[in-house]
Amino acid sequence: MLTNYLKIAWKVLLRHPFYTFITLFGISLTLTVLMVLTSFLDHLFGTHYPETRRDRSLYVMQMVQRDSSRTSRNSGPMSFKFLTDYAKSLKTAERVTICTFVNSSNAYVGSQKIKLNTKFTDADFWEVTEFEFLEGKPYNEQHIANGDQVVVITDDFKKQYFGKTTESVIGNDVEIENIHYRVIGVVKGSPITRPFTYADVYYPYTAPKSNYQRSDMRGGYVAILLAKKPSELKTVQEEFQSHIRRIPLPGVQNGFKYTSLEVKSEPYLENFIGTFFDGNAGLKTIFFGVIAFIALMLMGLPAINLVNVNVSRIMERASEIGIRKAFGAPVKTLMWQFIIENIFITFIGGGIALVLTLIIIQLINASGMIAYADLTINFTVFLVSLLVCLVFGLLSGVAPALRMSKLTISEALKS
Asked: Which of 1, 104, 212, 249 ranks highest by number of CB atoms within 10 Å?
């Protein structure tokens, strides 16, 4: 039966090329937009290079201090000492890395200035993340203990500073802010959309201007806590919070008197959303509600437009419907036939959208709009795309099928 429905749907598509073009154009355009958006969200929040262990990572990004009336607050990254005392000491975590967010520096090649994004990290940074080393190796605890002036650079900075050479630059010097460093490794860069790992140059935290020796609680450092397996994330969170609860209250930070202190360790998505909504559950609910509404509109409005096209297409077959009803075809059978036909047509449009999406994301990756962008159609994106196709097919197919089911035999035969 299903095979017959699909054969009929194919014949109908070939019967009216103009209707077919309008239908497939609307479907493929809508699904292309949704697939590209899904691919970007997966690029932003999914587990990808070099943060390939996000499924068992917790991110510590800021400390929030509030006064007794909770009308004033002081927030921002923490000091290296604070994170060493309260994060590095975790026993349930496999590893903990402490690093800065992106800083700005300059390098010069002759008279040409190269603007750089730089990051100070500990040695565990290279164990928590999974960077691809094209040359050399990362700095280790020994380099840090010795205070060695070494750096790891990206392949892009290598091209800018040393030119398009195919020779290794390991052991060569780079001068950044009038300080000479020895290149110890070259890595494939991390996308700019991953601020915990993105940079052009990576220094050991003992390098100049890192401010790692600050003794107060606030500073410029963040942390990633790596659990041994995803199921132990809650355990690591609880241990970290038990450490934070040991901090004596009230306290004073740079003249600000605070009575409450909050430092969260969260999965990446929660950490990202929480940055904007400051843990306000109501605002988070509104945010996700708006996202759901936008997604519904993106699918719903084109689906409504296609309903009219599908109604016209189905009503042209009124005589066929009348004859089948006259021979005893149940309304339920006729409805499922047209719904399956519409889903079949939608999946054809989805196939076209998939090809268009692949072309578009390759253009985005190659354009340089997002540094080191690696948008892909992976299993997650493909699965979401299939679900969207199914929903879209149902949205634009159920109403015409219901309209058709209400036709009496006499009305259908007269049409």
From this structure: 212
Rounded to whole angstroms, the Cα distance separating 125 from 138 reads: 9
Task: Give the tens place of pLDDT for each residue, 7-40.
Answer: 666 766 667 677 777 777 877 887 788 788 888 8
What is the identity of the amino acid at 352? I
How many angstroms separate the CA atoms of 258 and 288, rounded? Answer: 32
Q: Which pairing describes strands 179-187 and 173-176: parallel, antiparallel, or unpaired?
A: antiparallel
Calpha distance 290→288 (Å, rounded):
5
Distance CA 190, CA 52 (A): 11
Amino acid, res. 172: N
Model confidence pTM above 0.85: no
Return the pLDDT at 393: 65
Q: Distance between CA 34 and CA 386 in Å, rounded?
A: 11
| Residue position matching structure tokens 């400390």 | 63
pLDDT in tens, 309-352: 666 666 666 666 777 667 676 767 777 777 777 777 778 888 88
